[in-house]
Amino acid sequence: MSVDKYKVLMTAVEYGSLTIAASQLGCTQSAVSHSIAALEEELGFSLITRSRAGVKLTAEGERLLPAVRNLLSSEEQLNQLASSIRGLDYGTVRVGSFTSVAVHWLPRILKRFQSDYPKVDIKLLNGDYNDVDRWIRDGSVDIGFITVPSELECETIPLMEDRLLAIVPEDSRFASFPKFPLVECETEPFISLLESSDHDARRALDAAGVKPNVRFYTKDDYAIIAMVEQGLGISIMPELLLKGRHDRILKLPLVPEAKRFIGMAIAASEKAGPATRKFADYVVKYVQESK
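RESULT FIELD:
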């Protein structure tokens, strides 16, 4: 069975456009349309709908999606293994990450890896913890950065402890405090990530028996920092995320102390291809050297 038509389908769905898919695949839009139509005829049902908003999967297409991703992932693993046997370093590694790792780790890791393995393509997806977990489960990524322990049923590698810090405005009354008492979150205006993303701060607050006085919710880490700069409230963020920044905020250790544990999940576990394994090795080496 040829998987080319499935690749065309996934590219169209990924970009939400037949035109962009054609550009990415190096063919015409009519060729993309014909390929998807042929696949629909072969399967016996429609896979996509088209509108001004773009291309979307039908209900039947959504049901087929996990199997298609598994098919393409298996083909990629096969290609990587065959390339490894031939002595080549070829393949595609899809990486899912959250902001702090995407900003502070991945650029340097990618530079090293691409220098040694220029024929391996890297595709990056950036989101929050919830997004990365979902991408790992549905096969959208080969490697995902997560917090551990995790409920994901795949190989996980612990990488680093990362302190959680309070961030407060520069002119805050806490400026003279050597550490920030978590209990203060009950009265101070608190700026929070969405509940689906705010695992770190919520764990720290729950462990301390503190219910925060949440005034604002956002999905963007850097939006929180900007809001704290303007005196709209306080928040709790990982130290790695704040590394190297020069915002007009104060960063204080927490009382009681709290940490997150960053890890790496390999979606296919023992079936992961050689390029995926190589990239995972580079991640581990980089983190060890950075400690």
